């Protein structure tokens, strides 16, 4: 019927027909329903305008997601200072303004014009600014394009962050954050990115959980939970734990797939290592003072594992041997490199070692994880027998990429070079001969040198005559080349001071300045002085650049070699034995170890594991992992079988001893069990057991006022007591209807009050007055004992 004016219900109407009376009743009933719906709609609109728990959780997760993504980009170290510092600061500032209740700072129209304006300056960024940042890097054009694209991505992300006003903007922000984390993955392989990626994954799950709950709350009929309450805190904790659990599950499943799927080749961009800053200093030309600057750098160069951990502390990791000195710098005039190809199993084998060297040396196995470094030298101890590694940066370590054979270059100084010149972290393993010939054997070495040996390793520039005079004076009592080398080594180690702080310019003739003026320097000064002094005495010698053994990490069982471990030493030639190592540099003062150094050991172990089993994970690693798992599973099965067999024998022996010592009690346990089962059939015992269970539940509740289940248990007990006296609740009766139907005046008031308290706690959300319910139940029980059952 059409809507019309309602009759005035305050006046007594005239005699209305029965049909008109029914029609007025229907109008009133419909009008009340409409008023209720309108009130509910108005309440829903007012609730929707208020901030809710899901809304605040979603916004907080989204802002943290953006902050984590831009922080991951900044932590790569590949961006310029402005692009590295501004986005995280802007994301934090936006989070602060959101917390204070501020809305979007930019309109959509203005944000669109900003993005269009940036497109106009993008070419300048690509061809000028980013190009200058990428100069001197491998694949500089591609790296410049990546930097320019990253700048544009960060600009769009920040503009959208400050103009976001609806769900579409929020989803676009989440996608931009994902693009930022992908860009960070391209720019770095550090373990810091792994931590940030895990955080990003958890925040991403939390963001989409909040988004779905926020979207679902908008169409809800019941009012959503209000914000800024204790309920909000518990709700946020629950959602946060759900996000973390989902993220951990994804990480576990992804890790399993990563280790199980075959790994035969690297990614498309793997050979383009975007490393704009590579540690220099190990090249064909080394100037005096250069390594001193490198030794101030604490960055990790390589990590080394070797079974001979105890005896590896004195090993030096040989890189480049230099033959010619012009007074200021060392270099090799003609490298004359030769290629040495790998065999079918991937090993590169070297030959041509002196027979005495093989007889008086010990083999050493090692595994090296080499970080990107601005040299193609391959670092290994002493004389290398064979090497195997992923030198080409593609495929597995047994043979390089498909159809491409791994090979190395070796020069006359037995220095090894990687022709593929990797700009990414790679792993190789090797076997070397470590000389063990002692002084008596080296003293017997003849002093016969070939003409090529004299021409190359007795070369001298124009020298200050005081150098040769000093060499003759301190070795005048020595009879053999070995004794002369040992005396010069000892003299330099004890009469000169080691320092990295050299003031002033070394000048045109730095060696005499070191020997006769400053009398202090770092390793290449000591090694150069000894090499030149030996050459003035007619003993072939050369300078070698490499690294000290580094710091042993007890946690990971590996040596951590840093740039500060860069070192120069001397190799002296002894016919029949080859080149022997001498080090005239005094030892540097040891650094004190504290709590932070202990934590750093764990972090270095984590980085080693990350690089070994994630970054450099290939088919060879899969084979090793499978073999280890098979071997360990077999060992675990044997241990488990032995453990259970031992336990079973012990249990049998104990049962036998117990049974033989207690023959009289053999039948007591079955009889006691049977009596207990029979006793449970008696009603009295069942009621006592039920009552004890109820009392235990009531007394053991941590927060009885909030537990509606306890009220339900007490109400069930009430129904049981009333049913015994004939007051049975019908299937269609509500609790209040049943309480009204109890006609006994002795118990009706108590039953009514009990039912009211129960209904409020069970259906009204009120606190459960447990003490009052227990008192009423005791009164009803006591009263029922005194009255006769209802008829």
Set out the fold topology.
Blueprint: H1 18-49, H2 53-74, H3 81-99, H4 108-133, H5 140-163, H6 167-187, H7 191-218, H8 230-260, E1 285-287, H9 290-294, E2 300-305, E3 317-322, E4 324-325, E5 329-331, E6 338-341, E7 348-349, H10 355-359, E8 361-370, E9 380-381, E10 383-389, E11 407-410, E12 416-417, E13 426-435, H11 439-443, H12 451-457, H13 465-474, H14 481-495, E14 497-498, H15 510-518, E15 520-521, H16 523-536, E16 541-547, E17 551-553, E18 558-562, E19 566-574, E20 578-582, H17 595-615, H18 619-661, H19 668-679, H20 683-700, H21 708-724, H22 735-741, H23 748-763, H24 770-786
Parallel strand pairs: 14-15
Antiparallel strand pairs: 1-5, 2-8, 2-18, 3-9, 3-16, 4-5, 6-11, 7-10, 8-13, 10-13, 11-12, 16-19, 17-18, 19-20
Helix pairs in contact: 2-3, 2-6, 2-7, 3-5, 4-5, 5-6, 6-7, 7-8, 13-16, 14-16, 21-23, 21-24, 22-23, 23-24
Report on this model:
The protein has 24 helices and 20 strands. It is of the alpha+beta class and 791 residues long. The chain has a seven-stranded antiparallel sheet. A five-stranded antiparallel sheet has the order 9-3-16-19-20, with helices on one face. It has a three-stranded antiparallel sheet with strand order 1-5-4, with no helix packed on it. The protein is elongated, with a radius of gyration of 42 Å. It starts with 17 loop residues before the first helix and ends in a 5-residue tail after the last helix. Mean pLDDT is 77; it is low at 1-29, 39-50, 264-278 and 395-403.
